[in-house]
Amino acid sequence: MSQVGESTARALLRRLAVEQSESRVPSLTAAVVRDGEVAWFGGRGRAGEGEPTLDTQYRLGSITKSMVATVVMRLRDQGLVDLLDPIGKHVEGTPFEQVTIAQLLSHTAGLTAEPPTEWWERTPGLPTDELLARLGPENSRHRPGRRFHYSNLGYGLLGELVARHRGMPWLEAVRREVLEPLGMNDTTARPRAPHASGYAVHPFADVLLAEPEHDAVSMAPAGQLWSTPGDLARWAIFLTGSGDGVLSKATLAEMREPATVADGDAWSAGYGLGLQLLRDRGRRLSGHTGSMPGFLATVWADPAEKVGVLFMANTTSGVRGTLLTDLLAILDEHEPRLPEPWEPVAADPDLLAMTGLWHWGPTPYVLRLLPERGLSLTPLRGVGRASHFVSQQDGTWLGLDGYYAGEVLRAGDGFLDLNTFIFTREPYDPAAPIPGGPGEWSA
């Protein structure tokens, strides 16, 4: 059973209640998912006639971007686009046709943050052809690939890429390929009842101002969608790696890989391919924040722990960025995850014989056998390059991480060949290929 205990639920609810009260949020919801289920949900304040529930809609804002990016990655996996393709190959008529799909996904294309229109979040949107006609060289702010520069405009272009390849509006493609398979049937382009109304809270008085809501049209892929805590929990479960049928685990892991650092010297926040990244108290989180007039939302997932957390609020600003990481810290404190029981596994005798001590020149390494014929190669003294390897059909192993990610490990007669680096049982074994030789160790 994934439900949290009573004392944990009380601590989580108190943190939520403190945030709603101290930050003066009209209504605030939060949820924790664990092992593919909603483990806790809380709601405070009023949304319409009563407290918000799992079925109350709020705006997602830029969380929409991650769903658009998911369809782009499906296009890549189907061979219809390459992440290194220039956007001009698929969406003609922009003055920056050479920026790549990967750069647009990771906000490293150098494009302006906002489109050359009126304040797009607060005014009715423009058709795509009119938006494209307004673009000029001045809408490129940085050399492509140079730095992280968040661009809503870039995701407007990615939405058009999806529409042209699928032969339907971007939203219909997202609905068919992401929302419906994940059971996110309460996620829509415009609000449906019951939904929270968006408000701005006066900075010096406890009064509200209703915020506008429009169809952003060509900019809608940057932040149009409305959803519920229940549906966003399904998205969080997907991000933890539990949502099969939409993306392969390998592609989802690729989206989580850091493509750029977003916070300079701090190096605690970054961006992958359509996913924001955050490091907090030893966790590596992926997800996205969202902000539109009258609404805030955020979702984070920790695939290593199969845990996710989210909040949704109907306020333009004010919710502290530490809310969700504090909820995860409460979960860690009250209900730390137990390690999986150790169990022995059957091992191929030939692979078992490969395990043990190997040397890269004078440096000792340990080779361990992992499940499903995988290998790990780690320095004995903890200093050096460590990598995990997955078995390939041709009898080799492919590096998964670290320095040797993507490199090939081959087993020779008494040595290991790791992309020309030779590992031997003895330091500089003279019987092995390079770096073996006739020399002897001496004082």
Automatic annotation (TrEMBL):
Span of domain DUF7586: 348-425
SUPFAM superfamilies hit by this protein: beta-lactamase/transpeptidase-like
UniProt entry keywords in alphabetical sequence: Hydrolase
All copies of domain Beta-lactamase-related, residue ranges: 16-320
EC number of the protein: 3.-.-.-
Enzyme class: hydrolase
Molecular function terms from GO: hydrolase activity
Pfam families attached to this UniProt entry: Beta-lactamase, DUF7586
InterPro entries: AmpC-like (IPR050491), Beta-lactam-related (IPR001466), Beta-lactam/transpept-like (IPR012338), DUF7586 (IPR056008)
Protein name (record): Serine hydrolase domain-containing protein
Organism from which the protein derives: Nonomuraea roseola
Organism lineage: Bacteria, Bacillati, Actinomycetota, Actinomycetes, Streptosporangiales
